[in-house]
Specification:
Blueprint: H1 37-42, H2 91-107, H3 111-146, H4 154-192, H5 203-248, E1 261-263, E2 278-280, H6 281-288, H7 291-331
Antiparallel strand pairs: 1-2
Helix pairs in contact: 3-4, 3-7, 4-7, 5-6, 5-7
Length: 337
């Protein structure tokens, strides 16, 4: 009668030696051991990996990486033995990357739009600020020297206040529109100069660029009228200042001083029944010497210069936007939408 064989505990069994068949159950793997290829395929890795054998049979198995080179002092050289595709960490390479990024940004910067935006902001601020104060000074001069009746210049005051409110709206609109044109310039210039390697524009982007071109064209025509109107008060004050110079130097003119006058009614500032409506002779000369007249005259000149700067900026915007839109339309025909 044979004695039954006692069951051997699992931890005393010999390790599995069949390399062709993996164990039936999930077996834990060491941290440095790769999982079998069948398990990786089941997990959806998409690549087949050859299992690394513990023994020295696989390709490169059992080999150690060569030691890092050392300097004469015996310390390892920093960064040695690293793959060639990676850059060692250092300030030199960081500065190189920073300079490369800056150069790339400068290449894609719309210099024409930047100059036009700065000129537009400067011109609008000069025109609106100086124009507002010049209108206030004109109102004070009319009330003090050219009319004694409020009903004569009541309509003029309403017109001046209306223009001042228009100036507020003009300043707000142009500052917002200048920022939009600058953003559009960055978009179109970046697409034109192929920063991203392709013309990444859409039909909406082309339509937006065309819309900006049309709006800028209309604004340029409207601002031509504003530029012409801003020259009118400069002309009036210049004629008054010339008359004052003739009064101050009577030897340079054949007319008598009493006949040299500045009539506000002839320019449409006051109605014809306004009294006195005009100032002549030494009274006019005393007006020209006041700080209110001098300041108002120079403010109107500054407003005229601001209107001219804004007109130049709008022309620059229109030329740059038209060029960028034309290049996008011609060169971006192969873009997939």
């Amino acid at each position: 009668m044979t004695r039954p064989v006692a069951a051997v505990p699992p931890h005393l069994l010999p390790p599995h030696r069949d390399r062709r068949r993996p164990p039936a159950g999930p077996s834990p793997h060491s941290p440095g051991e790769r999982e079998p290829a069948d398990r990786l395929r089941a997990l959806g890795a998409g690549r087949s990996f050859r299992p690394v054998r513990r023994g020295g049979g696989g390709h490169g198995a059992g080999r150690r990486p060569p030691p890092a080179p050392t300097d004469p002092g015996g310390s390892a050289v920093r960064g040695a033995g690293r793959p060639s595709g990676r850059f060692p960490r250092g300030r030199v390479l960081r500065w190189d990357c920073l300079l490369e990024c800056c150069a790339r940004c400068l290449i894609g910067a719309p210099f024409a739009s930047l100059v036009a935006t700065g000129l537009c902001f400067f011109g609008v601020a000069l025109f609106c600020g100086c124009g507002h104060e010049a209108l206030t000074g004109t109102e004070q001069l009319i009330e003090t020297y050219f009319s004694k009746n409020y009903q004569d210049y009541e309509y003029l005051i309403d017109v001046i206040h209306t223009f001042q409110y228009v100036i507020y709206g003009t300043a707000s609109f142009f500052f917002l529109y200048g920022a939009l044109l600058l953003a559009e310039g960055f978009y179109t210039t970046g697409a034109v100069r192929q920063i991203f390697g392709d013309y990444r524009t859409t039909i909406c982007g082309k339509g937006l660029s065309a819309t900006f071109v049309g709006i800028t064209y209309v604004l340029t025509i409207v601002w031509l009228l504003v530029f012409a109107c801003s020259a009118v008060p400069v002309y009036i004050y210049f004629n008054t200042w010339t008359t004052c110079q003739s009064i101050a130097n009577p030897t340079k003119t054949t007319a008598s001083i009493g006949t040299l006058c500045a009539d506000a009614r002839m320019y449409g500032v006051l109605p014809w029944n306004a009294f006195p409506g005009k100032v002549c002779g030494s009274n006019l000369l005393s007006i020209c010497k006041t700080s209110e007249f001098q300041m108002t005259f120079h403010l109107f000149i500054a407003a005229f210069v601001g209107a001219a700067a804004t007109l130049v900026s709008l022309l620059t915007f229109m030329i740059a936007a038209t060029y960028n839109f034309a290049v996008l339309k011609l060169m971006g025909r192969g873009t997939k939408f």
